[in-house]
């Protein structure tokens, strides 16, 4: 289910790592929410956070946020 949620990964000169932002969960989690020394590590950490958030929402009986969908021009 986590595949429907997107993430933004950018290099941070200040932190010297890739930081992860979860636009769909911006209202419930501090941004950026995780990071990684490599791009792939950041992706893996981002996916783990998304999966944890989905589990938390389900455990608390909350509705998941609507995923943002890219609309091609």
Tell me what portion of residues adopts beta-strand conformation: 15-25%
Shape: globular
How many beta-strand runs? Answer: 3
Low-confidence stretches: none
Helical stretch tally:
1
| Structural class determined from secondary elements | alpha+beta
Query: What is the gyration radius calculated from CA atoms?
Result: 13 Å
Distance from first to last alpha carbon: 26 Å
Helical residue percent band: 25-40%
What is the arithmetic mean of pLDDT? 92
Topology order in helix (H) and strand (E) letters:
EEEH
Compute the number of structural domains: 1
Taking the sheet with the most strands, its summary is:
3 strands, antiparallel
Strand neighbour order, sheet with most strands: 1-2-3
Protein name: Type II toxin-antitoxin system HicB family antitoxin
Organism: Phormidesmis priestleyi ULC007
Summarize the structure.
InterPro entries: TA_system_antitoxin, TTHA1013/TTHA0281-like. This protein has one helix at 39-59; strands at residues 8-12, 17-21, 34-36.
What does the model show?
It contains 1 helix and 3 strands, in the order βββα. Helices cover 29% and strands 18% of the residues. It has one domain. It is globular and about 40 Å long. Strand 1 and strand 2 form a beta hairpin. It is α+β, with helices and mostly antiparallel strands and 73 residues long. The longest helix is centred in the C-terminal third of the chain and has 21 residues. Strands 1-2-3 form a 3-stranded antiparallel beta sheet, covered by helices on one side.
């Amino acid at each position: 289910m986590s595949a429907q949620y997107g993430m933004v990964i950018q290099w941070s000169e200040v932190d010297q790592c890739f930081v992860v932002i979860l636009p769909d969960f911006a209202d419930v989690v501090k941004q950026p929410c995780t990071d990684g020394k490599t791009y792939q590590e950041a992706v893996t950490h981002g996916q783990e956070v998304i999966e944890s958030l989905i589990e938390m929402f389900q455990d608390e009986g909350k509705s998941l946020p609507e995923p943002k969908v890219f609309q091609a021009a």
